[in-house]
Design brief:
This protein is mainly alpha-helical. It is about 55% helix and about 10% strand.
Length: about 70
């Protein structure tokens, strides 16, 4: 089941690519969307294997080139 990333998922993924180990509150405040929307996007991104949750925060598992394909 391959589907395109939503705009919010793309924003969250790009934010994490530039700022690894961010937490959901930091992401929400920085990109101007609700904390709930960020948490939902992170959940979906984790299920797709694009984001990993660590003890320090979230990290994107995708390179710039791969991000552009979504």
């Amino acid at each position: 089941m391959s589907r395109e990333l939503s705009n919010i998922e793309k924003q969250v993924l790009e934010y994490l690519r530039q700022r690894p180990y961010a937490n959901p509150r930091e992401i929400a405040d920085s990109i101007g969307i609700s904390l709930l929307a960020v948490r939902m996007a992170l959940y979906r991104l984790r299920n797709r294997g694009l984001v990993v949750k660590t003890s320090k925060g979230y990290v994107a598992r995708v390179t710039r080139g791969a991000l552009e394909t979504y």
